Amino acid sequence: MTKTTKDQLSQLHHAGAPLSGAWLSYARAEDRARWVELKNQSAPEAFAKGVEASQAVEGDILTKLTQAFKGPQAILTARSELAKKLQANILSYIANGQLHGFGYELPRQVASAPVAIPKVAWTGQCDWVNGTLSYQGLQFVGVRLTTNRKRNEILERGHVDLTPPRAVGRPSVAKDILSAIHALHEAGEIDVTASQYSHICKLRGWLELHRPDLDPPPNAISDETFRKQFAPFFKTLKENTKQ
């Protein structure tokens, strides 16, 4: 296992396209051409032509206005639908490992370095206009997307393996799970009225965000392994809540 340095994270972030425009930067040529075509169509001009055409339409003012708005509404709808399609494409590229997100986690300080954004965070709320992403209380700003090719280029430059020698056998993840449990408890994410198993997804999500280099990876840890660590804590918390 290798460790990504702060310098490499800065390079990866700098090499990426800002989230606010990435959906167009990484779009296919034909989709970009279609977007330019739609942007060059003037909604106000279409409205003016619609008003002129509505004069020849029989009916009340509402009928005439409906006719006048048909042109600009068609343009705006086409733009919105294309933008949504291209943004959905970006999310699929991230899920498939073709693009990688990097940004700053709030609260950001002057000396803060960019961080790699885990895939699971992209199931959260993505603000395409402001280039931000939020997931389970975490917020990332200044988000950029870097291609897999560029990422590999940067990570292959002077990468040093910092993994200490490990004893033979499968490593224990107990401490990491306990860290996740206490973090969720402090964040008020543990509900004693819910089932134990309903919290396992939350625990996995926390580990994917905060322990991305965990071995084995969070999605490979069995539910039973989580239960063994969570059950005693949950039982004690539930008993103390009743008092």
Automatic annotation (TrEMBL):
Protein name (database record): Uncharacterized protein
Source organism: Sedimentimonas flavescens
